[in-house]
Structures
1.
Amino acid sequence: MKTLNVNLGDRSYPIFIGQDLLDDAQLFSQFATSSASFIVTNTTVEPLYADRLEASLKANGQQVIRIVLPDGESFKTWETLQTIFTGLLESNADRKATIFALGGGVIGDMAGFAAASYMRGIKFVQIPTTLLSQVDSSVGGKTGINHPLGKNMIGAFYQPIAVIIDLKTLLTLPKRELAAGLAEVVKHGAIADHLFLDWIESNAAALNNYDLSCLEHVVVKSCEIKSAVVAQDEKESGVRAHLNFGHTFGHAIETGMGYGEWLHGEAVGCGMAIAAELSVQLGYLSLEDKNRLIRIIQTLHLPTKAPQWDTSKYLSYMSHDKKAESGQIKYIVLEELGQAKVQKVDDDLVISTLKVAGAI
Ligand code: NAD
Ligand code: MG
């Protein structure tokens, strides 16, 4: 087992990464409380992994209550959040209760927000079971739900007390979900560590094949990169924005296609290809490095060809991005592979980029 630390002063927490951690009752003993443990999960993950987690908690004398939610982004809503609160209240959960979020990013975001607001805040532990949640969403403390008028619009910064990553849960993940997680892995290399990007390029086939030691490496590296960024800028007033590389174009594709058509990671893969083109247009990235990044994304079975729309459709979906401030979009571009920066860009240049990328 490897242990990393997210350094946030009195809100610091460990990330444990290893195989079969769900069965490690000793590891879970540190979370034993005088109150109950609540496993928040969904109907897909519960039959796969909840029994093992429950056994490890019970081995430490904990009373365990399960709250099982329907599966899907479309359930990341106020109504589902309310069912978590109902479950907690019906079992008389008190301030010492702990929530264990067992599932992908949807479960982690919702259970985290429930923990942030139930009795003004109870402890929670992230147990991410998708690659995307292991390399991205479980670290950093962004929690929340969707509103019919916008994704992730209601939420809170609320850090877990620990993240427990059992790599073997990835073995049941569908191929498309694995690839979607790899998009965020590539992003970490592209914005922060060109040697890591080299490594991904050399080990792409093994990653596509669920090789656990390769997956361990990308989870460890990604958690290191993300937690270093979060430790510097927890609430995204500066460098944390670099984590949005590929996301402005990606969100436009995701929303424009209708949610669920493209997975988030697929849209980010394609968004990174366009953002790399923008970096070329700005005179930063060489054509050769852009093409190399696109090849890496493709090798991981992610799309790089954007849907073709009117210019106005792209620009309008992009300006709806939450990261736009007073209408002005800040783009994340690459100065070189492994080095990102924030930049305001004239619409003209964005339009010529979309043209070269074949999106309009
Ligand atoms: P998800 O939670 O919907 O999981 C994808 C699918 O895989 C679901 O059907 C799920 O039930 C299933 N699943 C989960 N673990 C499994 C396993 N081990 N084996 C088989 N199936 C499994 O999607 P996701 O990609 O994990 O997360 C996406 C969500 O994360 C979005 O809501 C997004 O907004 C959020 N997110 C949050 C942050 C953050 O910083 N908080 C960052 C990125 C994404
Ligand atoms: Mg993302």
2.
Amino acid sequence: YTQPLTFGSEITPKYTVPNSDGSLLDYYEVEIKPVDVQIYPNLSKTKLVGYNGEVPGPTFRMRQGREAVVRFINKGTLANSVHLHGSYSRAPFDGWADDTTDPGQYKDYYYPNRQNARTLWYHDHAIDHTAKNAYFGQAGFYILSDAQEDSLGLPSENFDLPLALAAKRYNSDGSLWDPEANGETTSVFGDVIHVNGVPWPYHKVEPRKYRLRFLNTGISRSYQLYFESSAAAGKQIPFTVFASDAGLTLNPVQTNDLYISDAERWEVIFDFSAYAGKNVTLRNSRKVAADEDYNSTDQVMRFIVGDKVSDPSRGDNLPNGLPQTLRNVPFPPAHAPTEYNFKFEHSNGKWEVNGITWSAGIDQRILAKPERGAVQKWTLANSAGGWSHPIHIHLVDLQITSRSGGRGALMPYEKVALKDVMWLDVNEQIDVVARYAPWDGVYMFHCHNLIHEDHEMLAAFNVTALAD
Ligand code: C2O
Ligand code: CU
């Protein structure tokens, strides 16, 4: 814990134009380009490729109801495709894996920003190179706010911390170990834990409540996070989970630890007031699959808690805590029969969904055809033996209605949440229900262990138009 935590810069629009109805649209430009970053003080700089040459990419702060167009200009060396993860983007702007932009080209993406407040992120999604591109830096926060969330008076500004976790692996000269060049086909768990691009950072905080937005941008490693202080070893310190991939949960949920797999977002309120003048360390108790784990992957970052609150008159310290109901979450209606069963498995050296890989072709890879507006239950089963799979279904917010095998039950915070990534741990089976809306179109679903995704645990579903 020798380097300070840093945060992505905040991007501002190049210009704003009025729509015909008087609403406004912001236009942004982002260049995807190589950058050398001094990650280790004693080693040479690490060659990365980032959005605007920043790793993680610049943070977008968006408001519900304000549309955006972002031009992503590829000045890197590999083709890319940009996915805004958590957005119900129209299919042409959703980062379809084969819709790649070559170096020297650009693509304009339209984002409606009409969903409720949530922590989204944008990252690469190019066919065969998603893992490499995301791992070398193409990932950033995209934070959407709305009036409902404002009304809760959550900790804001310096007390609202976006925290992007990523585990990576380095060569002894400071360069990143490259999963593609090394032909990696299973996972890169990584032995160096980064938060916002900094290995095992520290951050100075005040003895008050903070909003921590956890996002796992890593390509394979999952975590079970907990907080520890010298006065409280082990998982003794409670904190409050209040938001998920899809924004505010129904109720706040108190817990002492938190599972977070690749691409998941969980937001918590942590109260540092009992730790004035002490350290609070964020730790990880999750081991990788069946393998022996590396040293120090049980450490994430350290909060150094100051003696006093700088501005006691600030209204965002949640003096009365959170209300018991945070929002009226639009859970899909309970729905009995399973419409589709999907098995995530490993065979013939490939990661498959129901025996299909992406290269099976456009007709074979479309595995579901929900009619637009239909509420469907899909059953997802992990049959790959020994591996966990965080499954991401594009376009929709889903409710996990059951989990069997593996951990055997839903986590208490999962029960009150809508999700777009569902952690399917070893030997688990889960049911997920969603309303397949609001648009028609062909969308992807896949494992968000990006090595699995590139090797081709990636399939599609077609939301079909209603008959006239
Ligand atoms: Cu976060 Cu299909 O991706
Ligand atoms: Cu997987």
